[in-house]
Amino acid sequence: MSSYYCLVAGLPDILFDGSKTAYSVDRFREEIYPLLSPADAKCIDLFFLAWDNENILKLLREGGDAELARVGCYDKEALLGIIAQAKNGDARDADVPAYLYDFLDCYFEDEQNTIRMWPDVLSAYYYAYAVKSQNKFIGDWFTFNLDINNLLVAMTARKYKMNVSDVVIGDNEIAQALRTSGARDFGLSGSFEYLETVQRMSENDKLQEREHQLDELRWAWLDDNSVFNYFTVERLFVFLQKLDILSRWSKLDSETGMQRYNELINELKGGLELPV
Question: What is the C-alpha to C-alpha distance for residues 137 and 133, in angstroms, rounded to an integer?
Answer without folding.
Answer: 9
